[in-house]
Amino acid sequence: MEGNNTSAAHQMARLEKLAAASKELPLVMLNINKYRPEVEFPGGESYTAYMESISYSVGEVGGSVLWRAPVHGSVVGDLEGFHEVLAVWYPSHKAFLELPNAGGAREMFRYRRTCVEEAHILELPDIS
After folding, report:
1. Is residue 89 a contact partner of residue 60, using CB atoms and an 8 Å limit?
2. Which of 19, 39, 58, 74 sits between 20 and 30 A of 81, alpha carbons compared?
3. pLDDT digits (tens, 9 = 90+) for 74-107
4. To the nearest 10°, the Cα dihedral for 78, 82, 88, 93?
5. Interval 41-87: pLDDT, tens
6. Is CATH 3.30.70.100 the classification given to domain 9-125?
């Protein structure tokens, strides 16, 4: 990830290829977030607004936030200091790629830039 907060070009190219060839299979994006101190996770005003904007924009592309959980610590690997994990369901890769154009997305990405210090997002199959 460029700056540990956005996708690299090769990552986006892989998703675009999957979206073009996909059978519209649902997927889950597992977000591991470290927030900036001024966000005051989990009760700060900007954090709350960011979570509301995520729910709204993801809903605009047919997805939903499945769950959010605070991180209590890292057991293996170097993820110390991360605050939260979010599981976000999308009906397809195409829907995920439409997120930047969804209603409220400009605000959501503005909050992301101001709230998230570092993020890792893992693509998972929908196993429900």
Report:
1. no
2. 58
3. 999 888 999 999 999 999 999 999 999 999 999 9
4. -40
5. 999 999 999 999 999 999 999 999 999 999 999 999 888 999 999 99
6. yes
DSSP letter (8 states) at residue 111: H
Q: Yes or no: say if 99 and 61 are a contact pair by the CB < 8 Å rule.
A: yes
Instruction: For the beta carbon of residue 96, count every other beta carbon within 10 angstroms.
Output: 22
**Which residue reads 């997927």 in tokens?**
27
Which has the closest alpha carbon to 38: 111, 122, 109, 96? 111
pLDDT, tens only, 18-27: 667 767 889 9
Q: Which residue has the tokens 């990830």?
A: 1
- Helices marked H in the chain — which ranges? 9-21, 45-60, 93-98, 105-115
Mapped onto helix, strand or coil, the DSSP state of residue 64 is strand
DSSP structural state of residue 100: G
- Sign of the dihedral defined by the CA atoms of residues 52, 31, 114, 98, in that order: negative
